[in-house]
Amino acid sequence: MTDHAIPKQTRRDFIKNSARAVSTGVALTTLPVSGSAWVDARDVIKVAVVGCGGRGTGAAAQALEADPGVRLVALADVFEDRLEKSFKGLNAKYGKSGRLEVDDGSRFVGFDAYKKAIDLADVVILATPPGFRPQHFEYAINKGRHVFMEKPVATDVTGVKKVLEAGKAAKQKKLNVVVGLQRRYQQNYLQVKKSLDGGKVGDIVSGQVYWNSGGVWVRSRQDQQTELEYQMRNWYYFTWLCGDHILEQHIHNMDVANWFIGSYPVSAQGMGGREVRKGKDHGQIFDHHFVEFEYADGTIISSQCRHQRGCMNRVEEVFQTTQGSILVDGGNKGIIKSRDGKVLYEHSDVNDTNPYQQEHNELFAAVRAGEYLLDDTEIGAKSTMTAILGRMATYSGQLIGWDEAMASNHKLVPELDSWDDPAPVAPDENGQYPVPVPGVTRFI
User: Fold this and answer.
1) 170 and 225 belong to one structural domain
2) Are residues 299 and 162 in the same domain?
């Protein structure tokens, strides 16, 4: 249940009332924390972070800002230096507030660290590289924890299925789950979607979604690193960890298409490759993808993502409708036009809440109130699968159907217990990693 199921005004009123109840000490529910993960207005909400990179650290800060009763009680990461950097930054900002209850006994390092952190919390933040997300999500739900997890929620079909299965348990336990597809919590998107649902410009018949940019960081191999450590440090460039940038970043744009259309694609075909980003530290992933997604009603969405410097940058979503057109982006843009070019709506509220903060505000308001209001699991899993479907199409050069992809045993992520385990892919004698070849690589 996200925005399509709960009117935004109702949710805003709910958050406002929840905050008022917190400040006055009025109990919204008397369910005990123990065994239920629900809290009342007199209780703290214990939060653990699994994955202490920049996104995990940022999400921890947003959780602390969302509710005055939040206490950060545990941090977990496979890398001690990353964990300590995160702790140092959070401590500098929140240490004097008394809300950072993390000590030497609740900073956990290792492949099983996530279990120890999750065991201590009411709400968990999952922000490791996405290849590990299904395993961590499953454990959190089994433990009865509310979850904020970053997108994407998996890197392979096996992982998507695991998340969907765990989502069934989350629904039975009435656990709130928010996925970091923050455009669904962003006012320009919500207002445009409201106008679309109200029939202001008819139905979507086609669209173009873009994430074209210069790319992201690269972490070079260091002396004394094992192959597994190197790949996990430089995780963005290995498909088993990241899923390729068509999944890790471009998922946002595909998710908007799915959301606005109200369904998921039935097939995909496209092309892609490595044109300029081909170094040893660039692992396996492509630097450009182009996909055509077809939906059951015949709607075609064209998808572009590119990591090439010096080229045109473009990150937005554009749709053609039976009566006009729509343009939205992750900044603050939201424009609806008629067929003759007349502006019917233009979003202009510069005081909108930051959507990264808003998704935490709504999650913690729901937890505070003891209400089951947020369940992004299926949305997150199926938009993840949309991007995986597109990647399958570009890697293989084949037309791939949704149902046949979901029926496959596509698995990239191995079970890892220690640094002694081998990495799932290995470089050749020249230090180059296996890269998909359209026309040769097969999935189905």
Assistant:
1) no
2) no
Residues 187 and 347: their CA atoms lie apart, in Å, by: 8
Instruction: Encode pLDDT of 162-192 as tens digits.
Output: 999 999 999 999 999 999 999 999 999 999 9
For strands 146-149 and 123-126, give the pairing: parallel
Residue with tokens 């998107």: 189
57 and 199 in a common domain: no
CB atoms within 10 A of CB 215: 16
DSSP 417-439: -STTSPPSS---TTSPPP---TT
Residue 153, domain extent: 8-183+355-376
Q: 């406002």: which residue's tokens? A: 16
Hey, which residues does 9 pair with through a beta bridge?
none
Residues 359 and 317 in one domain: no
Q: What is the DSSP string of 173-222?
A: HT--EEES-GGGG-HHHHHHHHHHHTTSS--EEEEEEEEEE---------
Note the pLDDT of residue 41: 54
- What is the pTM assigned to this prediction? 0.92
Tokens 């120890």 sit on residue: 116
Cα distances (Å, whole numbers) of residue 118 to 77, 98, 127, 140, 230: 12, 21, 13, 6, 26
- φ and ψ at residue 7, rounded to 5 degrees: -55, 140
**Tens digit of each residue's pLDDT (9 = 90 or more) over 369-381:** 999 999 999 999 9
- Residue 167 CA to residue 164 CA, distance in Å, equals 5
> Residues in the chain with pLDDT < 50?
1-9, 12, 15-36
CA-closest candidate to residue 362, choices 378, 346, 370, 373: 373
